């Protein structure tokens, strides 16, 4: 579980394939005379912690860190006023899709920090939110990245399945990190896998995602169907790239028997976001739905989906302790997710603040966003 590598000037420890801890060799040499390896890794101040997959700084979000799990879009719990909670345990992705709405992967130009949440901390906080929400809650593991990179995934879903009130656990995944062993470890706890498969053509898939093994992901799709879990195939339709792949993906999903209880497909429209990657023009919504309606007729399958198809319903939303436009002072506790941003803590929430100030300083900011409890501020 703990790999050790000799770097040029640093000792490198890799924990669970994703957490990379770098300690200057001269510091390590002094400490190892007195302390155990585990002690040095945990408490050495001079260490750098990185996400091994993306190479970015990795902030460990624990209860002791004082970083709340509400308020941020990159990690923690997001409540958009329904019985579905988005739960984000880790950021970072092993792919670099040209249409990625959160500009993820090693090639990202906008993301400068990754976060990983301690599983026990997440479970304790999730229990409180689920209690507030009531029965029949869906815990949806998604995020700014690939959720299966979470090294505590199996442990986490098992614990979440025992939370009273949780009825469904679903996960959004690119499928590249799933295999027979992992599927058998999670099938008793995870209800549905939403698999983002956008091309069945190997060359086009590489163009869309970077290095990518289509046949492996096809096999994974079949393994999920043959497990206790349900499968929903969720391609992103990127006009000019995979138009011809969409009917082939519909046929594939129907052929393998995706959608035992839920719809087999959730085709997503490519939308260029401000801080996401741009892959050309998007299709107007009207055209998108008209084309889905045509495919619905042709294949006899429901493709225009509604929240009710997933058992979603409106529920009271957690209240947000901020108002748009108000001015707040808060301490910067960590680097921010985006370039030019820092992570602040105020009123029990994590807040992304656009500022040039440093970690440890206090910043005064104006709240510019509070939608769905995600709080963003800009330094005054
Ligand atoms: S798999 Fe998802 S998170 Fe990863 S780069 Fe592609 S779109 Fe982004």
Radius of gyration over all CA atoms, rounded: 22 Å
Indicate the low-confidence ranges by residue numbers.
none
Strand content: 25-35%
Examine the coordinates and then state which fold CATH places here, giving the name of the CATH topology of the largest domain: TIM Barrel
Number of domains: 3
Reading off the top of the CATH hierarchy, the class of the largest domain is best stated as: Alpha Beta
3D structure, described in words:
The chain is α/β, with parallel strands linked by helices. The chain folds into three domains: about 1-50, no CATH class; about 60-310, Aldolase class I (TIM Barrel, Alpha-Beta Barrel), CATH 3.20.20.70; about 325-380, OB fold (Dihydrolipoamide Acetyltransferase, E2P), CATH 2.40.50. The chain has nine helices and 19 strands. The protein has helices spanning about 25-30, 35-45, 120-135, 155-160, 180-185, 200-210, 215-225, 245-255, 285-300; strands at about 1-5, 10-15, 20-25, 50, 55-60, 75-80, 85-90, 115, 135-140, 165-175, 190-195, 230-235, 235, 270, 325-335, 340-345, 350-355, 360-370, 375-380. The strands form five sheets. It has a six-stranded mixed β-sheet, covered by helices on one side. The longest helix has 15 residues, at about 120-135. The radius of gyration is 22 Å and the shape is globular. The mean pLDDT is about 95. It binds iron/sulfur cluster. Iron/sulfur cluster (SF4) binds next to loops.
